[in-house]
Amino acid sequence: MEIARNSLIIATLPLWILFAYLQKPLIIGREALENPTSIISSKNALFFFNIMAVGMLGGYIASKYRHKKVTYAFIQGGTLLAVIIVGYVTSQINTIWLV
Amino acid sequence: MLHSAYTVKITSIGIVGLALTYFLLLGSQNLTFFNMGEDGPLFVQTAKFLSTGAPSPGSPLFHLTNAGWLRVFDFGTDYGTLVILPSLYSAITAGLLYLITRNLLAPLLWLSSGVVLSQSTILELYTLVTLSMVLAYYCHTKNHRLLAYFIIGLGITVHHTAGMGLLALIVTDFVNKNSIKPALVTLIPLILIIYVPLTNREPYYMISGHSTSDYLKYFFSTASGLLGGLALYPTDDLVGRIWDVSRILLGGLGLSILLVIVTVKQDWKEHLLPLLMGLLPLIYYSTTSDNYAYFTILPTFAFGAVIASKSDWKFVKNICIGICSILIVMNIFLYDFDRNDPDKTAVQFYNQLETLPDNSVLETCYCISNSIYVNMVYLYNRNSEKNIYVLDTEFYRIPRGMGTDGKPITSESWKQTVQEAEEQNKLWRVKANSFLKGEIVPATSKEVLSNYLTSDFYKETINGNSS
User: Which of A12, A32, A40 sits opposite B369 (nearest CB)?
Assistant: First the structure.
């Protein structure tokens, strides 16, 4: 139960960064002035945090199986694969939607 | 124990230093359109010439502090000298948050928030309001209740939103069965408001005269939006406001909101004061008519950070500390909005004013947030002793429409002013779609009048129903 709860908490981290990104056009006033897409490169930050959250999540779950070497290695390997997949997929979404 | 207290104080001072460096690094060096910095030219004006500022309640403490600072220090430009103060207030708040909580999470949450950063890097008063509320809270927790009320009184002389801190103190004392007589001390600092009539002189800007009616309008007109919960109507505004509140709150406090909920749920009475001090400004923003009044929720971040830091949920606290640290680093490298680009600051607009002949009439673009143009022109008039009329919606917000020369403006005389200016080749306007450059071009009376005669705002003004 605790592992599930903590995993869910880690999984929400990209949302924090997403909202931090979405608030900026409003708080610096660009939203009132012009199309805010030219603001910084926060989409890179979103991209980075998606990967980081997946990495953290895998690392956290793996740490709970540290004594079972095979399971531990399997989860770490799976995490690496998930990071690559999430990185690839979100990079495509960024290109299509946010540029 | 003694060593620990000493360490906490030293750490707090260190946080103030680091926070100040962080804000100065990202601060705007001159008058800017960004971060809703439209009050900047007004505050430069009040500091230099000790004139009345924006209501309410006239912010005497803020203006007097700025005026004193400007007369002692000089860091290049007037704006560059003054903009250090909001950064300093915010940095002290960060140090104070650590002193109160003895936990790094509180200052980190404060410093990483985009709203805090945006308001700490321009010439604005909201960081001083928040500092007064945090300081009042600190004094209250140390059982210096008289001092707490006195400080919140000082906060009210900066901006009326500090009044919500007063309400929070009174409610807390009432619930805890303490005497609320100390609240009377709040009245003492209010004597500073005498600054307003003393500095209200020609050419009138914010107040159109010295009658009781003029002052009542000045003190109470801006707060009128609070009464009706105007943001709730029509429905699309409600949806829009929910979206604005969500992204600002979740983007600033993020996961720590979870800590706040859990902590308050454990013992709401213990956290009643910080809860009210944070919640009331949030309700204020949620119901006020302008979605760009987001800066009123700065106390929400400060007191949200205080409550979150008191949580004993170490797992989430550690994650929050990590994310906040990363966000601060990201802000340093990514929070760039061309604030120092000379082509995209308000300075470019200001410099063009020098090319206009005396007694020119300038129509600023009929769009949102154009009060920076108005404030810039008034600052220019003050600095150069020239007289440039500004025509825009702001002009009619002044009761009875007083011009820069103090003469009342009626709709007919206003039209006449525009037409005469055209005949003398002194009619100008800010080119549409050039907000960031504020490009000034010659105009015709037809162009200028067509902007206003068809607008609801103008019609209401003619009918004498101007807000």
Answer: A32
